[in-house]
TrEMBL record:
Catalytic activity: acetate + ATP + CoA = acetyl-CoA + AMP + diphosphate
Segments forming domain AMP-binding enzyme C-terminal: 539-624
UniProt biased composition (Polar residues): 1-17
Positions of modified residues (N6-acetyllysine): 624
Record protein name field: Acetyl-coenzyme A synthetase
Record: residues binding Mg(2+): 545, 547, 550
Cofactor(s) this protein cannot do without: Mg(2+)
Chain ranges of the AMP-dependent synthetase/ligase domain: 92-486
Enzyme Commission numbers on file: 6.2.1.1
Coiled-coil stretches noted in the UniProt entry, renumbered to this chain: none
């Protein structure tokens, strides 16, 4: 281990997949972009902003960093996000192009062209303005995945009214606190949406969230706009609640966008809450749109005339903001939006959709890929996936074995995979291979994009040498960076800028391999200290997942008298192995096999002290493993705040199983 490294480097991955000459020949991304951006980073971003966006007033200033860590990009330019996403495509004669293929969970479909979108967004903007919403007012959006969700976001942007989207799966309490945090004037919701084959109500959570409570300030919400999706019975507050259709029906189809300054707030969005209380991240307009468009075009190699793009993320997450709404629409893409769950009515639904719409670019999360692996590759094998030409991954480190499966089973061994590292805070992709340029490596996000400066540093902020591990940092401001935490500048400075003065601390561990490529190693909060060795979660989990009987794994450090901390692993086994492990002999066998496997793959120091076979792992609603809850279990503590958990019964299931005979 190199002397000044602050994280152990355990796993060596030697597989590499160079781009095919055919792909490289047609790729949007070019190797020369790195040099161009290195030569003059600000000129590079100014060029992207001018080429990818239409400005009402051109900017003359690229970056103002005088008030660091709050950046101002393209500050004297003016523009409108919705105009850029919709109107200008229609004005350029592309109004007939399909913007959205919508597929509801029950199988209903809708095709929306850019011209349709322009009419809908304009009418919605007029309707929202008629309710008294003005530039700068905040609007909370609490909707399922519908065309109206995209329309609602763009209508707000058209008015200069920042939206705060709250994931439709969140509870009334989570919604209430986000409404209060934003001091929203309007809430846009639906009667319900389709989930796992049945209508699931949404409006009752809004009613509950807006109810007066003793000792709390009265809500700032004046109106609730309600999209009719399921037609289920819906309680109604006269004077406050208005049907979306009624409001839009009488609204004019023409609307003059509100031209805003580049630094005008576009939205507030709360982080996933994997590590604790969610933070209300603030994004502004010009820089954010520039980087969302640039990355969408180059990281996914988008050809707007021919590609059918599908990002499976919900609009409740940042991925849905940058890569369902803003990036693709700014670039004039044709995309698929699917309302429901991947296993309704059957486990092949996603692949059926890929076949039906001839999806050519797919962007999803490792948790979804691991779930499909668990279900078995015979399911995707039933469908024609040959239209796929680029595959993306985001949200967590992707284990090399899951990457290989994704490439082989979904990508037909030819589609390049882009493992994209970024955060709600970064607004857009920061570290990723460029398809057609980068030789990809299973499990690594590899290289900062052109115009992005990232590094891995040790405790003293020194760059670690190749082969070393430490903290991921971003050393220079970037266009789509957050402009703060809503209403809490101190927390912003404290969370991201105090660990290493002057550089952005991402909160993730990382290492550099011998080529200098970056590998994400999981949260810094989750790093374990075993006999003085600092071990990250990702590599041990990847070693476990590379054993044929393991479907998913999560490791944590639990206090240990002799070693400081000991590695404790929670594993989900594939199919029949789970039954076998439930017997006493079987359990011992599994423990021994997996401990030996980890020792062989990455070394004895990483060998789990305990391995617990569990039926499920605790995950956030965006699909990320919440290790802090497992640490509570491993250390026999009461389980901490689990409000962002997708399924709160999972922790009971895990605790009950552990108390039992297994
Ligand atoms: P909170 O900040 O509230 O704990 P969160 O960090 O899960 O929540 P997001 O902004 O949705 O909220 O997630 C960003 C994080 O997801 C990154 O910091 C990183 O830990 C992880 N991540 C995202 N993409 C990747 C990737 N490609 N490889 C590894 N990790 C990733
Ligand atoms: Mg985070």
């Amino acid at each position: 281990m190199p002397e000044n490294s602050s994280l152990e480097n355990l796993l060596t991955e030697t597989r590499s997949f160079p781009p095919s000459p055919e792909f490289a020949a047609q790729a949007n991304a070019q190797a020369g972009m790195y040099d161009e951006a290195r030569a003059d980073r600000l000129a590079f971003w100014a060029k992207q902003a001018n080429e990818l966006l239409t400005w009402k007033t051109p900017f003359t200033q690229t970056l103002d960093w005088s008030d660091a860590p709050v950046a101002r990009w393209f500050a004297d330019g003016t523009l409108n996000a919705a105009y850029n996403a919709v109107d200008r495509h229609v004005e350029a004669g592309r109004g007939d192009r399909v913007a959205i293929h919508f597929e509801g969970e029950p199988g209903d479909t809708r095709t929306v062209t850019y011209a349709d979108l322009q009419r809908e967004v304009s009418r919605a903007a007029n309707a929202i303005a008629a309710l008294g919403v003005e530039s700068g007012d905040r609007v909370v959006i609490y909707l399922p995945m519908l065309v109206e969700s995209v329309v609602a976001m763009l209508a707000c942007a058209r008015l200069g009214a920042p939206h705060s989207v709250v994931f439709g799966g969140f509870s009334a309490d989570a919604l209430r606190s986000r409404i209060a945090d934003a001091e929203a004037k309007l809430v846009i919701t639906a009667d319900g949406g389709y989930r796992r084959g049945a209508p699931s109500a949404l409006k009752p959570a809004v009613d509950e969230a807006l109810e007066p409570r003793d000792g709390e300030a009265p809500t700032t919400v004046e109106h609730v706009l309600v999209v009719k999706r399921t037609g289920q019975d819906t309680a109604w507050t006269e004077g406050r609640d208005i049907w979306w259709d009624d409001a839009l029906e009488s609204a004019d189809v023409r609307h003059e966008p509100v031209w805003v300054e580049a630094e005008h707030p576009l939205y507030i969005l709360h982080t996933s809450g994997t590590t604790g209380k969610p933070k209300g991240i603030l994004h502004t307009t010009g820089g954010y749109l520039t980087q969302a468009a640039f990355t969408h075009k180059n990281v996914f190699d988008l050809k707007a005339e021919t590609d059918v793009y599908w990002c499976t993320a919900d609009i409740g997450w940042v991925t849905g903001h940058s890569y369902v709404v803003y990036g693709p629409l700014i670039n004039g893409a044709t995309q698929l939006i699917y309302e429901g769950t991947p296993d309704t009515p059957h486990r092949g639904r996603w692949w059926e959709l890929v076949e039906k719409y001839k999806v050519s670019i797919l962007y999803t999360a490792p948790t979804a890929i691991r779930t499909c692996m668990k279900w078995g590759e015979d399911i995707p094998a039933k469908f024609d996936l040959s239209s796929l030409r680029v595959l993306g991954s985001v949200g967590e480190p992707i284990n090399p074995e899951a990457w290989m499966w994704y490439r082989r089973v979904i990508g037909g061994d030819k589609a390049p995979i882009v493992d994209t590292w970024w955060q709600t805070e970064t607004g857009a992709i920061m570290i990723s291979p460029l398809p057609g340029v980068t030789a990809t490596k299973p499990g690594s996000a590899q290289v900062p994009l052109p115009g992005i400066v990232a590094d891995v540093v040790d405790d003293e902020a020194h760059s670690v040498p190749n082969g070393g591990g430490g903290y991921l940092v971003l050393s220079e401001p970037w266009p789509s960076m957050l402009r703060g935490i809503w209403g809490d500048l101190e927390r912003y400075k404290d969370t991201y800028w105090s660990r290493f003065p002057g550089i952005y601390f991402a909160g993730d561990g990382a290492k550099k391999d011998d080529d200098g490529d970056i590998w994400l190693l999981g949260r810094v909060d989750d790093v374990m200290n075993v006999s003085g060795h600092r071990l990250s979660t990702t590599e041990i989990e990847s070693a476990l997942v590379s054993h044929e009987i393991v479907a998913e794994a999560a490791v944590v450090g639990a206090a240990d008298e002799t070693t400081g901390q000991a590695v404790v692993a929670f594993v989900i086994l594939r199919g029949e192995h789970a039954d076998r492990a439930a017997t006493e002999d079987g359990s011992t066998e599994v423990q021994t096999a997996l401990r030996n496997h980890v020792a062989k793959e990455i070394g004895p120091i990483a060998k789990p002290r305990r391995i617990l076979v569990v039926p499920e792992l605790p995950k956030t609603r965006s699909g990320k493993i919440m290790r802090r809850l497992l640490r509570d279990v491993a250390e026999n503590r009461t389980v901490g705040d689990a409000t962002t958990l997708a399924d709160s019964s999972v922790m009971d299931l895990i605790s009950a199983g552990l108390a039992g005979p297994a």
